[in-house]
Automatic annotation (TrEMBL):
One of its GO terms (cellular component) is cytosol. Its main location: cytoplasm. Keywords: Cytoplasm, Repeat, TPR repeat. Residues 8-99 form the RNA-polymerase II-associated protein 3-like C-terminal domain. This is SPAG1 protein. PANTHER family: RNA (RNA) POLYMERASE II ASSOCIATED PROTEIN HOMOLOG, SPERM-ASSOCIATED ANTIGEN 1. It comes from the Eukaryota. It is found in: Cytoplasm.
Length: 131
């Protein structure tokens, strides 16, 4: 059964949706959630709940479902994700394979570039992600 995703109004709602999406490993539903969530709200919606599993689900969802359609949105999500409370901790705990997945997404962003971000923007964001 496909998860129905509606825009979360607060961090609690967002957490509930993320939990359901993550439990089902539903990348399409996660992509739907990210598509309707204002990237600027990510740090607040995630509050201190960012975990490695969820971080990777975001990365994979953006890679499989969003980057081809809207690279600007992907850039925005990556930018604001890096402002989340536990970002540095999660980053430090990523395996080499997981870091490669993040690198892959950045590679796709430079291939699918649009006018919403420059290569310089992308390069400085990659440094934040320690790639």
């Amino acid at each position: 059964e496909k998860l129905r995703i509606s825009e979360p109004s607060n961090a609690y709602d967002f957490g509930q949706i993320i939990h359901a999406v993550n439990t089902n490993k539903d990348k399409a539903a996660c992509a739907d959630l990210l598509a309707i969530t204002d990237p600027k709200k990510l740090p607040v919606l995630l509050s201190n709940k960012l975990e490695g599993e969820v971080f990777l689900l975001f990365i994979q969802s953006l890679e499989y479902y969003v980057v081809g359609k809207d690279p600007g949105l992907v850039y925005q999500h990556l930018f604001y994700l890096s402002k989340a409370e536990r970002f540095k901790v999660v980053l430090a705990l990523l395996s080499r394979n997981e870091k490669e997945q993040v690198q892959q997404l950045f590679d796709l962003l430079s291939e699918n570039r649009n006018n919403q971000y420059s290569l310089e923007d992308l390069e400085s964001l990659k440094k934040v992600y320690e790639l």
